[in-house]
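Researcher: Let's do a round of design. I'm pasting the structure tokens now; please hold your answer until I've finished.
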């Protein structure tokens, strides 16, 4: 086979299992998965390089329905990933998410003449709700199903091309971005508050100490003073748990022992201010 390479995007309703599928495709836990919606923010691009192909796969935010200005940034980022893609995989979970959202995504991808498949996250036999879109439909469990048909669809629709990035590169994202996302997901996982659009993680400093340990200092932004004690927890228990869970998830990404130094800062209403949103989403 002549060498193929290109750009693939996973897009669809929040909590459909996009990041679960993405991590399996790229073979690394690059994109945090939680049981809560709105875990993924800005796109995370992972790279799968084989002998005859290179896939740059983009995991995107679940289609944001609320959340004000941040949602606008996220919606734009999804569209921009679709425009850049050769293959668009619309990931859905039956009977969840709004049909209108899926309609809009598919219309947009069709208007840009992309190869589109609908991936249905299910091993259950399903009704025909996706047949009206007249695209290929692939049903499989994103968690443990057979991904061969997904890989085949991608390969069938990738253009012939030389590799686009170095063979040993794993992601287009910087370590800083991957680390910030991981810490944020651990906060979402551990705190019962529904705060996905009110917490951001900013990496202040990364340095390798003489003993080889990766020292990471990060600040967690909260939007209200009442949120700070939730993150800190009683006698600092919660922030310790966040730190130790995040450290365990970061170490395989950076391939080093990590020391995580976490701080919490109240940034009142930060998610209403464009400048701060850009810093939080790393688009500034
Ligand atoms: N049982 C089962 N659970 C799954 C499957 N795929 C995903 N999940 C679970 O569904 C939840 C959401 O998965 P994610 O991969 O974070 O979903 P997402 O679409 O990336 O969500 P957002 O980034 O928040 O929009 C997690 O608790 C996953 O473990 C599956 O095939 N089977
Ligand atoms: Mg996700």
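Researcher: That's everything. Go ahead.
Model: Designed sequence:
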């Amino acid at each position: 086979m002549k060498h193929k390479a290109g750009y693939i995007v996973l897009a669809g309703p929040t909590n459909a299992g996009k990041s679960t599928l993405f991590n399996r495709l790229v073979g690394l836990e690059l994109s945090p998965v939680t049981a809560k919606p709105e875990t993924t923010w800005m796109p995370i691009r992972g790279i799968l390089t084989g002998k005859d192909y290179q896939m740059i796969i983009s995991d995107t935010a679940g289609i944001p329905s609320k959340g004000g200005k941040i949602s606008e940034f996220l919606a734009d980022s999804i569209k921009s990933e679709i425009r850049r893609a050769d293959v668009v995989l619309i990931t859905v979970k039956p009977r969840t998410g709004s049909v209108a959202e899926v309609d809009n995504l598919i219309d947009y991808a069709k208007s840009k003449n992309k190869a589109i498949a609908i991936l249905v996250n299910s091993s259950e036999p399903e009704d025909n709700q996706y047949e009206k879109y007249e695209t290929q439909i692939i049903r499989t469990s994103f968690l443990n199903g057979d991904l061969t048909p997904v890989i085949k669809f991608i390969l069938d629709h990738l253009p012939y091309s030389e590799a686009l990035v170095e063979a040993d590169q794993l992601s287009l994202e910087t370590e800083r971005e991957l680390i910030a996302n991981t810490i944020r997901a651990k906060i979402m996982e551990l705190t019962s508050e529904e705060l996905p659009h009110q917490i951001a993680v900013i990496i202040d400093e990364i340095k390798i100490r003489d003993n080889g340990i990766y020292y990471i200092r990060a600040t967690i932004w909260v939007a209200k003073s009442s949120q700070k004690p939730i993150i800190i927890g009683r006698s600092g228990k919660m922030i310790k748990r966040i730190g130790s869970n995040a450290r365990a998830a970061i170490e395989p990404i950076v391939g080093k022992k990590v020391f995580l130094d976490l701080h919490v800062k109240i940034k009142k209403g930060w998610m209403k201010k464009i400048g701060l949103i850009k810093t939080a989403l790393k688009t500034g």
